[in-house]
Design brief:
Elements: E1 17-20, E2 23-29, E3 38-41, E4 44-54, E5 62-69, E6 75-81, E7 85-89, E8 91-102, E9 105-109, E10 116-120, E11 136-142, E12 147-151, E13 155-163, E14 177-181, E15 186-189, E16 198-202, E17 207-211
Antiparallel strand pairs: 1-2, 2-7, 3-4, 4-5, 5-6, 8-9, 8-11, 9-10, 11-12, 13-14, 13-16, 14-15, 16-17
Domain Translation elongation factor P/YeiP central: 93-148
Region (Disordered): 1-22
Pfam family, one: EFP_N
């Protein structure tokens, strides 16, 4: 009787890992969702900033999430089902200092080695006027070096360049007035704000917060 020779065991299956359009991606499901992960969703890149697994008494489990667009910073809510699959994208974030605009490009500098880079200004969309010289920003890029987003600080201080005068009868509790900052940003400010005043602005909404010291 011949001795049976055990067959070698097959290696355990590995998670799907591939490159898609220059991006390193991993196939993921609802169970893989976690805060901070970046996924391909609706033809764009989104970061998971909040999630909640829900197991109803009847029916399949699902997941409620809040996703922040890497490029625009806008937040949306989405519900994932157990059957949903998507690509997780590896994103690298680095701090840069904004120097100036050069045509259609923004010139940023690495404060450690002083290397400069040109980034397409359209990545900021309508938030470009929130940039001020020497502002520290966070640049998000894929593994192959492609820049996909620029994150601004939560608030920024700018100087009012132009606005209507504060007329008698106007009050701070009113609807406010239109003003323009040094960068050309248009926003509503209280009636008491005057040209030359420094104000604090929420970069997520582009709205006035308060006068800055």
């Amino acid at each position: 009787m011949k001795e049976k020779i055990p067959l070698p065991k097959s290696p355990a299956p590995k998670a799907c890992h591939h490159k898609n359009k220059g991006k390193e991606t991993n196939m993921a499901t609802m169970a893989d969702i976690r805060n901070g992960m970046v996924i391909e969703f609706k033809d764009d890149l989104y970061e998971v900033i909040e999630f909640l697994h829900v197991k109803p008494g009847k029916g399949p489990a699902f997941l409620r999430s809040k996703l922040k667009n890497i490029r625009t910073g806008r937040v949306l809510e989405n519900t994932f089902r157990e059957s949903d699959t998507f690509n997780e994208v590896r994103i690298e974030r680095t701090k840069k200092e904004y120097l100036y605009r050069d045509g259609d490009f923004l010139v940023l500098m690495d404060s450690d080695n002083y290397e400069q880079m040109h980034i397409d200004g359209s990545l900021l969309g309508d938030k470009e006027n929130l940039l001020t010289e020497n502002m520290e920003v966070i640049v998000s890029g894929t593994a192959d070096g492609k820049v996909v987003g620029i994150e601004l600080p939560t608030t920024v201080v700018q100087t009012i360049a132009e606005c209507e005068p504060n007329l008698k009868g106007n009050t701070a509790s009113g609807s406010g007035k239109v003003a323009y900052t040094e960068t050309g940003l248009r926003l509503m400010v209280p009636f008491f704000v005057e040209p030359g005043d420094k104000i604090k602005i929420d970069t997520r909404t582009g709205e006035y917060i308060e006068r800055a010291n």
